[in-house]
Amino acid sequence: MIDGITGIHHITALAGDAVRTDTFYTRMLGQRRVKKTVNFDAPEVYHLYYGDRVGTPGTVMTCFPFPDIGPARHGTGEVGHIAYAVPEGALKDWARQHRGARHDTAFDEARLHLTGPDGEAILLVESESTVGQVWAETLDARIAPRGFHSAALRVADGEGMDELLRLMGYVSVGTEGSVTRYRVHGKRASLIDLDLRPEMPHAMAGAGSVHHIAFAVPDDATQLRAREALIAAGYEVTQVIDRSYFGAIYFQTPGGILFEIATDEPGFETDEPVASLGEALVLPPQYEALRGHLEDFLPPL
Ligand code: ZN
Q1: What's the gap in Å between 136 CA and the centre of ligand 1?
Q2: Most exposed: 80, 104, 136, 164, by fewest CB within 10 Å?
Q3: Stretch 30-49: mean pLDDT, rounded?
Q4: Rounded to the nearest whole angstrom, what is the distance from the C-alpha of residue 103 to the centroid of ligand 1?
Q5: Torsion (CA) 91, 93, 99, 104 in degrees, nearest 10
Q6: Which residues does residue 213 pair with via DSSP β-bridges, in sequence order?
């Protein structure tokens, strides 16, 4: 078994319009934009990061806005929903602002179903979870999300995924309907819901799709051990890739969902001070020469 995975690190989605995405995560969900940079593989596309005050792993949603991509077709082989934890009692206030939003209960927790900037399913779940340092600039701290509660992995067949989650240190803690819940030993964003939906079509990527979900390990050494264990179990895993704010390895899962394992270090304060995180366009050294062009080309946020 892999030792040292502590929960979700970040979730990365494909988006349509950059301004709409930015408005949703900052104004509506009350997250802090903790980094404004570009896609390291395609610099004319933003890479925007939203999280708590410092971008604590377990709170970080990241988006690649591609203005011209079509909408996603949702189905299996993708992350089905993203759930944020909100304080006990907060859903009353959220429901007042989002009249008509669906309410339900799962695993004894109350949930409110919201729709993201490109139609993605975003849930708010009342939970005691206290990830990170709440950013209460836009929303009252009594209702502001406290990082991820969980994410749902929607797959046609669960067998390989169950094995993989167990290899990653998760244990199943219960089943409701099509969903089996798994928990890993960690303080932050430690739940994963595996949703078996063989009747659904396979998902097709587009605006509103999650591109990948990343799981957190504390440091480089733990990441290398995780990589070796995955390779020993038959997975094809990338080399460690430097993403400036964390090291990343990626591998494809049996359920068709791309997984990443990312380090908690060095974090978002590595290239700008906490006081002004996410305000200026930050570029990796290889794109600094393109700064003038990118600042003209990318829509102002
Ligand atoms: Zn990632």
Answers
A1: 25
A2: 104
A3: 96
A4: 30
A5: 10
A6: 11, 259
